[in-house]
Prior knowledge:
CATH class: Alpha Beta
Order of helices and strands: EEHEHEHEHHHHHEHEHH
Strand content: 15-25%
Mean pLDDT: 93
Radius of gyration: 17 Å
Number of domains: 1
Helix content: 40-55%
CATH topology: Rossmann fold
Shape: globular
Structural class: alpha/beta
Distance between the termini: 44 Å
Strand order of the largest sheet: 1-3-2-4-5-6-7
Largest sheet: 7 strands, mixed
Number of strands: 7
Amino acid sequence: MPTTALHASTMGHRHGAGHRLVLAHGFTQTGRLWGGLAEDLAVDHELVLVDLPGHGGSSDVRADLWHGAALLGAAGGPGDYLGYSMGARFCLHLALARPDLVRRLVLVSGTAGIDDADERRARRSSDEALARRLDPGDGTPPEDSVATFVDRWVSNPLFGHVPDAATGIDERRRNTSTGLASSLRLAGTGTQEPLWDRLGGLDRPVLVVTGGRDTKFTELGRRLVTTIGPDARLVVVDDADHAPHLQRPDTVAAAVRAFLAH
């Protein structure tokens, strides 16, 4: 039977009086896959590393974006929240649903959703095709093993070149086929209700981080910042793609630390 709570652990011991920072990872990752970013930020923050629904220790958790956001807030508690890609979408939903839990918000390569209904439908169809390769749902064997699926996923040109040590292939392969399939079906981008018209209600500071070579999400980042208003700012990381925190962890950590310090 699916479980109803997310797996979370703190990284190392607690550090002084620093604010709690909850990290929400991307698709096929786990709470352990933050590379040098987590190591850097753990120096002066208490980190809570959460396995999101369908991933890692939360592989048996089945949740859409709103339900998953509630589970994320329950696992992380009050603090600052940083989400990457899929994790950014969970964090954004949490900030809108439970602003009392989110002091400051960092969105790395995130979006507030696809506006056009036909495009959302096409994305759901695309994600369902991916999900069926992992879990057909009709008792037939899957086309892909988790290892095959993950290897193909990380080779997507969208991510550019990520150092082998930061890619975390072995950790990604710990995921389950049914868990990843459920994530695509329940929390894929095509399932997301567009939130653009609600962003003006965010009354806390927001930092948006994108990679300079990821032109699509940099444009989305600019739209996020413009729509949220004066408490939002954008940092574009040069020589980086969709995973700037894995490619340029020092640059991203410096931007996050400066943002959270104010």
